[in-house]
Amino acid sequence: MRDRSHLRVSCRASPSLALVKYWGKRDEGLNIPATPSLAVGLGGLETSTFVAASPDSADHVSIDGRTQESARFAPFFDALRSRLDSPLRFQVESHNSFPTGAGFASSSSGFAALTLAASRLVTELENRPPLEPPLLSELARHGSASAARAVYGGFTVLEAGAHCAEAFLPADHWPELRIVAAIVFRGEKSHSSRSAMAATRETSPYYDRWLADAPLLYARAKAALIGRDLEELGQTMRLSYSRMHASALAAEPPLLYWLPASVALLRACAELRERGVGAWETMDAGPQVKVICLENDLAVVRAGLTAAVPGIELISAIPASPPQTLVIEGGPESP
User: Fold this and answer.
1) Host H or E run for residue 84
2) What is the pLDDT of residues 77-125, one digit of tens each?
3) How far is CA 238 from CA 52, 274, 289, 292, 300, in A?
4) Residue 99 pLDDT
5) Residue 192: its pLDDT value, please?
6) Separation CA 171–CA 43 (nearest Å)
7) Which residues pair with 155 in a beta bridge?
8) What are the tens digits of pLDDT across the range 247-296?
9) Strand 32-33, strand 60-63: pairing
């Protein structure tokens, strides 16, 4: 086994934006999705994670300089050690270039980067061959189901009941596609996706209808993406996020993530479409709004969103390349 003290692994990964939503779990403990999802990686938003061997017998994780509760990460680390038959404990430092826990799928890029870096550290220290993507996706799922998609980049799918995601189309399938992420609120959202999914499943009278409807939207969106049909994809995306949020709003107590600025941005997209501009929005569990469009409409879309919410912070993204992993040797002074 190599010297642990002089080896770190870094990984940069982009969050996975579900164009057709995953909302609900068949198995809460294993993060098995109850509905299928179709997603794109948000190139331009990034989680950077550094992993080294822990100096003691515990795992340690910090995100943006804040020490994390060990209970949130214990199922992931336990699954990783069990699957790889390794006793290694980890020291993890992670940073996001976008708001954490605010509805930008930071858990997807976070656990994807952690999976890729931690598993690579094990294989380097214990002289094993690198892990294959399906196994990496399966391991990432133990941290977050959407992280199972984020290990690939490009366009991905995660089937209902699946233990791992699959690459669907490469990032360059649609070079003109752009995603505008509008940061409505930088604080953490009021309800985590995990707790909100559970509440929706347990109390919403619309949940069963959501489960029945989601596969139809999924098939429709996949066909639109293959054909690069922006209007069809956009219409399907709107139905997916609207029905997801409707099921959550019908929970007891109701779960409402939208803020006034969120609604203003949704109305701005509708006004842009009335003018013939292809601006199609989606929302996850949080107040943020993401808008897909084509490159030649990007400036008009950004201007329309800014006019609706003056001063709104916008990030323009492209379909993300696969995550990048780097082995760093040379001691603690290495960057």
Assistant:
1) helix 70-84
2) 999 999 999 999 999 999 999 888 777 788 999 999 999 999 999 999 9
3) 42, 15, 12, 11, 20
4) 83
5) 84
6) 9
7) 40, 169
8) 999 999 999 999 999 999 999 999 999 999 999 999 999 999 999 999 99
9) unpaired
SS3 track for 213-227:
HHHHHHHHHHHHHHC
CA 149/CA 156 separation, integer angstroms: 6
Specify burial of residue 73 (Cβ count, 10 A radius: 0-12, 13-18, 19+): buried
* 72: helix, strand or coil: helix
> Half-sphere exposure of 89 toward its Cβ, with a 13 Å CA cutoff?
10
State CA 211 to chain mean position distance: 20
In sequence order, the 6+-apart residues with CB closer than 8 A to the CB of 175 are none
**How far from the centroid of its chain's Cα atoms is residue 67's Cα?**
21
The answer for residues whose C-beta is within 8 angstroms of residue 173's C-beta and 6 or more apart is 154, 155, 225, 228, 319
Average pLDDT over residues 140-150: 96
Q: Say how far apart CA 207 and CA 201 lie, in whole Å.
A: 6
315 close to 302: Cβ distance less than 8 angstroms: no
Q: Please give the biggest Cα pair distance in the chain.
A: 63
Tokens of 49: 């994670």
Task: Determine whether 53 is exposed, middle or buried from the number of CB atoms within 10 Å of its CB (0-12, 13-18, 19+).
Answer: middle
- Residue 203: the pLDDT is 97
Packed helices 133-141 and 106-125: angle between N→C axes, nearest 10 degrees: 120
Give the model's pLDDT for residue 105: 80
Q: For the chain, what percent of residues have pLDDT higher than 70?
A: 97
Q: Which long-range contacts (CB under 8 A, 24 or more apart) does 130-134 make?
A: 133/167, 134/164, 134/166
Q: Assign 333 a pLDDT band (cuts: 50, 70, 90).
A: very low
Is 80 exceeded by the pLDDT of residue 1?
no
Nearest-10 crossing angle of helices 70-84, 133-141: 150
